[in-house]
Amino acid sequence: MSQFGHPRGIPGRMAGWVMAHRGSNRRRNRWAVSLLDVQPTDRVLEIGFGPGVAIAELANRAIRGQVYGIDHSEVMLQQASRRNAAAIRAHRVHLVHASVDQLPSFDDPLDAILAVNSVGIWPNPAERLHELRRLLRLDGRIALASQPRCPGATDQATVRAAQQLQDLLTQAGFIQIRTETLDLDPPVACVLAINPADGWAPRLLQPVRMGAFDAVAGVATTGFDEIDETRASNRQLAELMATIPPVNVVDDPVKIREDRARGAGPFPAPVRLDEAVDRTIPGRAGDIPIRVFTPEVVRGVFLHLHGGGWTLGSAANQDPFLAALAHDAGVAVVSVEYRLAPEHPYPAGPDDCEDAAAWLVASAQREFGTDRLVIGGESAGAHLAVCTLLRLRDRRGITGAFRAAQLIFGAYDLSMSPSTRRWGDRNLGLSVPVIAWFNDQFVPGRSPEQRRDPDISPLYADLSGMPPARFVVGTEDPLLDDSLFMAARWRSAGSPAVLEVVAEAVHGFVLYPIAVAQQELARGLAYVAAAVRNEASDKFSVVDDPER
Is the predicted pLDDT of residue 3 greater than 60, yes or no? Predict the structure, then answer.
């Protein structure tokens, strides 16, 4: 198999012959080229051109353009040069012996880039893709095709390969990521993406569209390789929750808060870091406490709204995570200590979050030296983040102030979405009785229909004008449908939406010491970091400004 990764000598020439003449390879390469939509005058680069089959197909399409190719094998250079000799003599095809970490220079930006079954052997592929972005013109296209050839490769191997390619492209800053599949044995996945026109890209990871053979994956888009560990963690969690009275049974928010503060609940006692600064900002009902983390270099500001069912939690309950976000993503983090139910039911919490967001919009440049803002939260915090964006638009005429939203296992339908209603009493951090208790603390005395007020359940709101958003949820979360439905409505309203569904992850899974939690935290950091790297000059609009 090594000869197919780096062909050399006589075995390499034989491997090249196989690659060029295997019918499935030729079909795969023609299909991948067709997805790139190469135009007659395009400038196209193939990385890892092998025996030159795709190069020939590219040259047939870019008849008045230029086709470039690099490959780290001298044997493949010789074979591809023979196969494309006429186009090389016509100066339409240019092949060089080089590797992806030693890219040649190009006089002008490229229109498209292709790589077929080669990304897996690149050193530091995320860095290489970031470098390739600089070679592409704005709105340029990239296609990464993968057909696992390892012994015993299955449909799921292709699913995982596609997910890995999507992750790499999002880390590198590409947008409009989508996956196409070709029904071979094993199937081929081709992940396509665009180099953003405005020079930036939040992590716009789309679900893997793998066709009929994706039945095993279901709605999940990630977490397949870690599923055994995730299931084991779920079993341990179920055993733990069986020993702790659920919040609806205790029915004493003050006691529950006190127990959790000292680690007597399902989680360890919160770790508080000295680097956080506590201060207050003005709000309609009085001063609002905030907790701030400020890195040495501030590229943006993340407005964080904590979870806890609008009843529990605190701005100081996730210091290690917020500190990592600040330092790794280069953002000042402002976590809001909004008022909690039932002492302060709706609309107190949303009011505080709206006021904090409005303060940040007006003060970020003065306070932190930047107006690049991102908003986000977990669970009830994700709900409050969406409500805050809607309130800014509807009550203050502010749109575009926040460049992106990070929305982790949020609750968007307080009348209960289908997945919630069907969940039952099984308690993996949430159950129907627990969710009902939280909802009753926040919006007491309201019927299900009244709870569909868009200011309470943003799933029912007009979602036009919202920023790009990233939704994350696990398949073992009663709130699964909340994220599925909200992401769909977000997109249908014309706003970019990412939906990442983690196989068999529970509500709050990022709090547990498992691989999918670490992966999600890393992806979340990358998303926020990418959002605040946005160099676009667009400012938010004041809808009711008579001068506009």
Answer: no
Which residues on adjacent β-strands are paired with residue 375?
A: 303, 405
CA distance 548 to 543: 8
State how far the Cα of 300 lies from the Cα of 79, in Å rounded to an integer.
50
State whether residue 399 is helix, strand or coil: strand
Tell me which residues are annotated as active site: 379, 477, 507
Q: How confident is the model at residue 536 (pLDDT cuts 50, 70, 90)?
A: very low
Provide the phi-psi class of 232: left if phi over 0, else alpha when psi is between -120 and 50, else beta.
Answer: alpha
Within 374-431, residue ranges assigned H as helices are 380-396, 418-421
What pLDDT sits at residue 534?
55
Give the separation between CA 60 and CA 42, rounded to whole angstroms. Answer: 11
Examine the pLDDT at 90 and tell me if it is beyond 60.
yes
Element (H, E) at 104: none
Helices (H), 246-371: 247-250, 253-261, 319-329, 348-368
Nearest to 225 by CA among 307, 266, 167, 272: 167
Asked if 158 and 495 touch (Cβ cutoff 8 Å), the reply is no
**Structural tokens at position 11:** 């075995």
Q: Do the strands 288-293 and 300-305 form a parallel or antiparallel pair, or are they unpaired?
A: unpaired
For residue 150, the one-letter residue type is C
Q: What is the mean pLDDT of the chain?
A: 87
Tell me which of 230-234, 289-293, 411-415, 543-547 is least confident.
543-547
Distance in angstroms (rounded) separating the CA atoms of residues 10 and 7: 9
User: Tokens standing for 512?
Assistant: 């547990």
Top pLDDT among 137 and 438 is at 438
Q: How many residues does the structure list for the chain?
A: 548
Q: At what angle do helices 348-368 and 380-396 cross, to 10 degrees?
A: 80
Among 373, 301, 309, 406, residue whose Cα is nearest residue 540: 373
**pLDDT at residue 103 above 90?**
no
- Whether residue 7 is predicted with pLDDT greater than 70 in this model: the reply is no
Domains located in the chain, CATH noted: 2-197 (3.40.50.150), 227-536 (3.40.50.1820)
- Residue 89 CA to residue 109 CA, distance in Å, equals 23
pLDDT tens digits, 418-443: 999 999 999 999 999 999 999 999 99
316 and 272 Cβ atoms separated by less than 8 Å:
yes
Percent of the chain with pLDDT over 90: 69
Whole-angstrom distance, CA of residue 246 vs CA of residue 534: 43
The DSSP string of 132-146 is HHHHEEEEEEEEEEE
pLDDT for position 151: 63
Token look-up 């009550």 returns: 395
E strand map for 454-493: 469-476
- Asked whether the CA dihedral 243, 248, 251, 252 is positive or negative, the reply is positive
**What pLDDT was estimated at residue 9?**
44
